[in-house]
Amino acid sequence: MESIPAPLGLPHGVVAHRDSRPAAAAERIDAVDSNDVRGPVGAPGRIGGVATRLSGILLAGAADPDSAAGESGVADGGPGRIAGAAGRIGGVAGPVGGSPIRIGGVAARLPRALGSGAADAVSLDAWPGGWRSRVRLVVDADGRAGVHRYRSTEVIPDLRCPQPMTGAMDGLADQRWTPGAELVVAVDGDGMRHLVEIAPPEPGSGDKRHGRDRRGSAARRGGDRNSTVARRAAAHSARAERVVDGTGRAVQYVSGRRWELSATGFWQPHYGAAQCYSDVIAGWSDAAPGALTWDLYSGVGVFAARLADQVGKAGAVHAVEFARTAVTEAKANLRDLPWVDSRAERVERWIVEQPSTAPDVVVLDPPRAGAGKEVVAALTDRSPRRIIHIGCDPAAFARDISLYRAAGYQPVGLRVFDAFPGTHHVECLAVLER
Ligand SMILES: C[S@@+](CC[C@H](N)C(=O)[O-])C[C@H]1O[C@@H](n2cnc3c(N)ncnc32)[C@H](O)[C@@H]1O
């Protein structure tokens, strides 16, 4: 287990009120009041319960690979607060008020739950004004941009939020948009803001988000992997996009390499995350020249590029991603690295078709619900020397790690990043070996 000191003193002193819960990574949080940030708009529940629940989920998830993500079976720990600034993940200062329950406990318990040593829990850099480079908004019947009320389709036309990067939301509240549309705001690596309006879904297109209260059963359980994927696919399918600001083509940089991608495509939302994770991965992977490596759930190939640098042209990187646009963009952005093979396939289908030849290093960065049993089983059957697994939901992450452990892999390094300040999500990265 490597040991890297945790930087303290985040500029964002995020303290949650006891009468709210922390927002999820994709959720907007309520307006800042001095040092306080409230949870998602209209969310019930108590903050102390959330911290306890998270810890419980980690422990339950690690112990039981079948345990469901979400809130089931974990006790509410009563009132408490998540500590601010120095008390965040990996911090040493105590909580600001009352209870010892704090998010730092999550990081402290994570390695125990995973059977590893102490986590190196650090924060991504933050600058005053916000960390979020990607924001997705909805438009209400009156054409006002806003966000959904927690677990509801009701649109709250209030854009005050401390998360977005400076300037990202400028002017949006003053304009009227197409009712039922979505707005994507992306601030790219050149500091350019791109604003894209995505047309409302066609009636009967399969996108139920505007017709169904998200308090439905799947949402209540946290959503299952397939329904989430299907819903997102439907949400993105064949909806006209209108570029309102910028070019609609975001330019991003990682380790001196330039990417150009659709502003509505996936990029790590914290402006510093792609570089940060890619550095951790490059440090851990240590792939030899000529080695075979896989980048699963590869997006536009940010991690594939780092693996490609290590294995060189005598090696191979298989990058697997199901979003066709992202794969087209990966091919274009990595065209000088022809030993990267970018494929538009579902990981769960692709992986079972691979020969038993052991890859040297495999990087997995699945969506929030995690990789799951089938993928982990197929992967561990092929006995890679090293697996690097990434997840922003500690519960799903712990469940996946427990699956690796059951297959004989152990975490030998673990990093936790507070990549979504003001939310209960943290980015967890583990490197595992047999
Ligand atoms: C968390 S993102 C990571 C992307 C990339 N690693 C990065 O850092 O930019 C997860 C990616 O997995 C893709 N994805 C989700 N489910 C998938 C599946 N079943 N098979 C292949 N790709 C999938 C999504 O489209 C998304 O690009």
UniProtKB/TrEMBL annotation:
Where do the TM regions start and end? Answer: none
Is Cytoplasm among the key words of this record? no
Q: Which UniProt keywords apply?
A: Methyltransferase, S-adenosyl-L-methionine, Transferase
Annotated segments matching region Disordered: 197-229
> Which annotated residues bind S-adenosyl-L-methionine?
Q268, Y297, E321, D365
GO MF annotations in UniProt? rRNA (uridine-C5-)-methyltransferase activity
In the UniProt entry, which residues are flagged as the active site?
C392 (nucleophile)
Q: Where is the composition biased (Basic and acidic residues)?
A: 205-224
S-adenosyl-L-methionine as a keyword? yes
- InterPro entries, alphabetized: SAM-dependent_MTases_sf, U5_MeTrfase_fam
Q: Name one Pfam family in it.
A: tRNA_U5-meth_tr
GO BP: any one term: rRNA base methylation
Domain of life per record:
Bacteria
Q: Its family? A: Belongs to the class I-like SAM-binding methyltransferase superfamily. RNA M5U methyltransferase family.
Q: What is this protein called in UniProt?
A: Class I SAM-dependent RNA methyltransferase
Q: Which organism is it from?
A: Nocardia huaxiensis
